[in-house]
Structure formats: structure tokens, C-alpha cells
Fold this sequence. Notes:
Layout: E1 2-7, E2 10-13, E3 18-26, E4 33-39, E5 46-51, E6 58-60, E7 68-73, E8 78-83, E9 92-99, E10 112-113, E11 117-122
Amino acid sequence: QVQLVESGGGLVQAGGSLRLSCTASGRTFSGYSMGWFRQAPGKEREFVAAISWSGGRTRYADSVKGRFTISRDNAKNTVYLQMNSLKPDDTAVYYCARSWRIVPGTANEYDSWGQGTQVTVSS
């Protein structure tokens, strides 16, 4: 069983940047893809980005392409989400998750989830 803990969320003005981190404990996540999802109040959880275990493949939602970058450091059991040019619509709780598939884009393809970290972007 892997435990995932997100950090790095907070309040930022529109146009600003944040970097989220997700650190795994227990079994490592080497060999698994990692993904980020987000959920805004009253909305369904949506896919944001994913990265393969080697880091060689990535996938992004259209809404964040060119603004967000996912990366990972397997030696530190950590995956990152660099978020630039933030918009109020990016406000949500951000979750990281682990998958046995290669950069999947749907939540049901992920088997372990973190508790989430709040990101709030003010206008």
C-alpha cells in the first residue's frame, strides 16, 4: 500500500505560480504512472496531468497545456506540478494519484489517491 501526501497549495493572485508536490511513502511509485486531478466546488473531479514512471511520457488536459508542467523524481518518491499563469478557474482541491497504466486520463484508472491540497487563485 502506498500513501500519497500532497503539499504546496495556497492562495495566489491570478497570473501567479505555485508548485505542488506529492510524496509517496510505503511502497515506492517507481514503475507506476502518476497523475494530478482537481475538483472545484460543485464540480466533478477532472484530469489535469500525468507522467509515466520514467518521465518520458506526459499528458495534459487542454485547459492547462502550456501553463502547467508535471515532473517526477523517483529517487525522492515525489511528483511535482508546476503551475504558471494561474487563473481563477484553476481554483480547486488538487489530488495526486498512482496508476498501473501509462499516463491515463480517467480517475478510475488510478488506484491510490492523496488527501488533496487546496489551490485558490484570486482575481
